[in-house]
């Protein structure tokens, strides 16, 4: 155990969740919106200016969908972070599929003309590629590479951060991990149960299990939500390219222990 981890922590009063593109962002958006309502807590999008507006007292919820929290927030000792990553291979496949159809109202960056694509938008460039594998490879070198850099840049040694893998969270149908996080946040037993109910009601294994019951914002982003889709959906060609490009990153993030995973592709 490090010296930092042994030091007593100030009781947290600010609970922040950080995700990355296609790692459960829409899920956490809905959960934290419901959590704010259920517990009557203010919620802030945690960028630099928001930190300056934080109330001096009382519990607060915060979100950042790139996990790019400002340094001022990291420097505080009254913050508890929840940080979510997902198997990057599933992030790649989910992102490539979603970026082919996502409207400007949801992802404006997809629809901005870009000089490097000859004036085409990201989505137009993606759709101009006729071969499905080539579209995924394009995604891999562009938006996906940015997302993976964000995941690698996170400091996983923070004593005040609870690290979640999407795969474990989506399988936690008893909501144990979320309940434990709210307990560590210092909420009362009644508040913990209210917050856990908000989590369950906005989860694909809970209140969102029936596709007909999903809100439009959820349905537009979510295909199945199941973990470990890549073995059945990633082609050997894409798999080999991924191994060459990001094989070390999979190991660093704990999703592989070596580079011998191509045999899992079906």
From TrEMBL:
InterPro entries: P-loop_NTPase. This is Sulfotransferase domain-containing protein.
